[in-house]
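Sample pair:
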Amino acid sequence: MSYPRLFPDFRRFTFIILFCCILLPIGILRAQAPSSPPAPPDAPAKTDSDTKPSQAPSPSDAAEVSSHDGPATFKVRVNLVLVRVVVRDSQGKVVPNLKKENFQLSDNRKPQTISSFSIETPEARTASAVAAPATSDGYSSSTDAIAGKATVLPQRFVSMVFDDVHMSMEDTAFVRNSATRFFASLAPSDRVAFYTTSGQFKQDFTNDLDGLKKALLGIIPRHISNDNFHDCPDVSYYEADLIENKTDSQALAVAAEEAVQCAFNGDETKIAMAQVLADTAAQRALIAGDTDTDYAYRHLEEAIRRLSAMPGQRVLVLVSPGFIMSTLQLEASDLVDRATRANIVINTIDARGLYTPDVMGDIANPPQDSLRTAGFKTSYRVAAQFAQEDVLAQFADGTGGRFFHNRNDVDEAMREAAAAPAFSYLLGFSPQNLKIDGRYHTLKVTLTNKEKFNIQARHGYFAPKSVEDPAEAAKQEMQEALFSQDEIRDLPVDLQTQFFKKDEMGARLAVLSHFDVKGIHFRKAEGRNKDQLTIVTGIFDENGNFVTGGEKVVEMKLLDTTYDRLSRSGFTVKSSFDVKPGTYMVRLVVRDAEGAQMAARNGAVVIPF
């Protein structure tokens, strides 16, 4: 009577022995990425993912290794300041092969410990984005590349930002002609986008040269403030900054004297009233100038954000006559920091070309100087034209770029500006005893060997005004890594891809991440080895546009026996996505909670039509 009941138990017992002794050591945990990747605002809608595991774990292992969707809590490398450095010799040639110990870095004259160091070259920024054609089984790894048949994805993305807020009509005609000649130097794998600081014109990344040439016609001056309006007194933005922000008594006196002449017919007894008029005019000019500068910053930020979502080498070329920063230096420093973290080099070109200071200002809108103030006003105009260059030099120095100025071959400058520096160094440090007060810190980078090299680096940074939320900081760090192509190897993970065609217009792409458990930092608690992995996957098309992606959190609470077994075999996490046939780059970013370590891998795949 009992034998029929024992037979199923015997089969179950045999299956358990087979599972534990043969199948389980393979250590495969295939989890699925959900449909909520950290995509940029303009990313396309994501597809649902396959959640069906290829092998079900036993109930005991399910309690030890599980996955779920949701945010993770990380330990964050707080207050890391990044400084990109380019070293050139006396002939202007870039100096390669320097090491971490060759550099010294000080923050407000206090020596700092360089905690991170990397060497940056165009080749290093260029991912191994060689897409392997489909094999008969639809399988490829991150290192596959079939000789003679591989498809090379775009490797250089150039954002050209035209400062139409500050350029004159003469400037725009000059740079349009130069840009047309620059296009002839582009390689087929290059992608170029146009932006303007007014935000009223945009051309997304493309290699269509005819389309780019037509798009150039949309680059015209679009001044936010009314430059043709002459106030009484007529105070420039540069003078307004001197009066309102730097309390320059001479600048105020000049403006007041001008008010006496234009408002009171030279009656010097009205000087007190003239000073009120001068101060009021300075406030209006400052507001108008700050508005123009803020417009430029906001749309530069937009261009940086869009370029950050592109794979490969990233270069931003700012074409501008320059502008006064006034009190908006924090915003400029933030832009440098954003670009540095996203591995974006900013090269700047003075749209005025080779010029001499224009003592009479814009010929189409001549100044209305009085005889008593003409000398001072001329000196202010000349000083303002030189001061305009400061912001262009700051953007270039802070990101490892170059500032091209005082030259008429702007087309050649654009060709040079579209390339990243041949060799740069990225230094990182965590400031000692940093106060959360928002104050400016000066930076200085020197070499220990004392050779007379020219060192180009950012001049300083602003301390944060508030403590950053660790979870949000970690999420931002992972998103920045996803839209990079830098290989990060803090964690041992290998990337492979598989696909199968569902029909002529659809395919299922699987991304497999294999982990070596021995290289993961676990925390021993309650008799288990604990850690949490957050895995983010991004799929990009051949133009570098984000297509889809996903995020998965894997919880590990391993008993010692399970840890020993997985240490020999590792385990694999699988993420699947519905895509159309085409060429794709796959980007994988992983971070663990206990060690606060990251890994990033690149892969590519061609799904044939």
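Residues 271-308 form the longest helix (38 residues).
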